[in-house]
Amino acid sequence: MQIPVINRSRHPLPAYQTAHAAGLDVRANLTEPVTLKPLQRALIPTGLFMEIPVGYEVQVRPRSGLAYKHGITIVNSPGTIDADYRGELMVLLVNLSDTVFVVQDGERIAQLIVARHETITWELAEVLSETVRGAGGYGSTGVQ
């Protein structure tokens, strides 16, 4: 699959880091470092603009290394970039650690996953089919 992209950053396009990686690492495009205090969040620009095919989305997910080593993750994870969006890809980072973290220009801040999705229509109903789980919600399938 090919996705048209405009790269207005000073950095390479998002790339797979290994042969079998699902996500493409995307980099911060900053004129100056961004400091994230504990529990602070910030929109980080990437300098990328995409034309995603209809029927697909690009999911923006945290990088496991940043999450594990520094407590940096994405607020709305996974974030969704819709096929009709033409603005700059921005990544909403949050610092869940108890120490300050500085985002540097060119740093790999998130990963992108291209995923197919369905468009549905609702079918109004009065009754739903029965299942073993039924209406059991949070924690209902745990050990009893």
What does this entry look like structurally?
Keywords: Hydrolase, Magnesium, Metal-binding, Nucleotide metabolism. The chain has 144 residues and is mainly β. It has a domain at 21-116: Distorted Sandwich (Deoxyuridine 5'-Triphosphate Nucleotidohydrolase, Chain A), CATH 2.70.40. It is 5% helix and 36% strand. The chain has 1 helix and 10 strands. The protein has one helix at residues 64-70, and strands spanning 5-7, 24-27, 34-36, 41-50, 56-61, 72-74, 79-81, 88-95, 101-103, 108-116. It has a 4-stranded antiparallel β-sheet. A 4-stranded antiparallel β-sheet has the order 2-10-5-7, with no helix packed on it. The chain has a two-stranded antiparallel sheet with strand order 3-9. The mean pLDDT is 95.
Short description:
This protein is mainly beta. It is 5% helix and 36% strand. The longest helix has 7 residues, at 64-70.
Notable traits:
single chain; 144 residues; mainly beta; Deoxyuridine 5'-Triphosphate Nucleotidohydrolase, Chain A; four-stranded antiparallel beta sheet; globular
Shape: globular
Helix content: under 10%
- Multimerization state: single chain
According to CATH, the fold-level topology of the domain at 21-116 is Deoxyuridine 5'-Triphosphate Nucleotidohydrolase, Chain A
Give the CATH architecture of the domain at 21-116. Answer: Distorted Sandwich
Q: Topology as H/E string?
A: EEEEEHEEEEE
CATH class of the domain at 21-116: Mainly Beta
- State Rg: 19 Å
* The CATH homology group name of the domain at 21-116: Deoxyuridine triphosphatase (dUTPase)
Sheet with the most strands?
A: 4 strands, antiparallel
Q: What strand order characterises the main sheet?
A: 1-4-8-6
Structure summary, number of beta strands: 10
Mean pLDDT: 95
Pathway: Pyrimidine metabolism; dUMP biosynthesis; dUMP from dCTP (dUTP route): step 2/2
Binding site for substrate: 63-65, 76, 80-82
Function: This enzyme is involved in nucleotide metabolism: it produces dUMP, the immediate precursor of thymidine nucleotides and it decreases the intracellular concentration of dUTP so that uracil cannot be incorporated into DNA.
Cofactor: Mg(2+)
